[in-house]
């Protein structure tokens, strides 16, 4: 008989300001949930079936290979490294994604999302890729499908190469982690010369062209950046250092290669103007992205304001309904009281009327021509009541 699993071992919930770790072998291919965490650094150093990241903010999350899907939902200000067969972000803002995925990453109702290649390593990660049935070479990290595109401002963009960094986690008693098994494009300081594809082919096939999603100038600049940086990396990566000799940046020495104009001049005096233009283009894109983020923040503030006004109107509507309900209740009660009082007055007057019993007894003979018609008798009685009340 299998031992019953403890649910608490497969979730991080409502944590604040902590470093949270799942060690190699602790998940062993099962599901995991990260929810309502703030200001945390989280390491999932094992393979899993699927992972949910919900309602968290201001966190750094590093996740090993996942055979199924990684879902990021209702999160804000997150840096996440995610390797899975499917990666999906919904209802989130300002998410920095270092992604390996064997299918197109998907966005829905999300803004200010940046994408870069997967960057995480820990002891045994290469074996875990095999256990999760993922091929590290088949990475579609940049082929993003946006289900809710914005016609004015792109919801997503590529991470500037100067912001790319590798992350590794070591554990006492375990072998040192090797390099990240996912090939890193030359644009981001790696050795992979595979062309960076911007946007999902499925989205283009469905009629949503990338220049519509990201803006013609934005897509042109980013594709130019990717192509020219790859060309530059292939021909100019090796630099000469007088003290250290020849350094091969393709082997992961990313700290010494900074993607800005001054560092390029210092390490490679012969860098061509075309490559310098590339860096300028990317810097301009960063400025545009900052402007876009500010615009998104303004939109979010307007949405918050509109939501507050809507809630205020809803509150007033409920107050009006309550008032009307109370008014009708009091009105009905008062009407019933008056009706009861009127009946008492009529009864009192009728009892004081001399000969009234005679009238009631002989009403069929007196007012109806001697016919005993109950409905006519009742109407005659009502007429007598009215006469009394006048």
UniProtKB/TrEMBL annotation:
Keywords: Coiled coil, Nucleotide-binding. GO terms for molecular function: GTPase activator activity; nucleotide binding. Residues 1-149 form the C-CAP/cofactor C-like domain. One of its GO terms (cellular component) is cilium. Residues 296-330 form a coiled coil. The keyword Transmembrane does not apply. The keyword Aminoacyl-tRNA synthetase does not apply. It comes from the Eukaryota. This is C-CAP/cofactor C-like domain-containing protein. The lineage of its organism: Eukaryota, Sar, Alveolata, Ciliophora, Intramacronucleata.
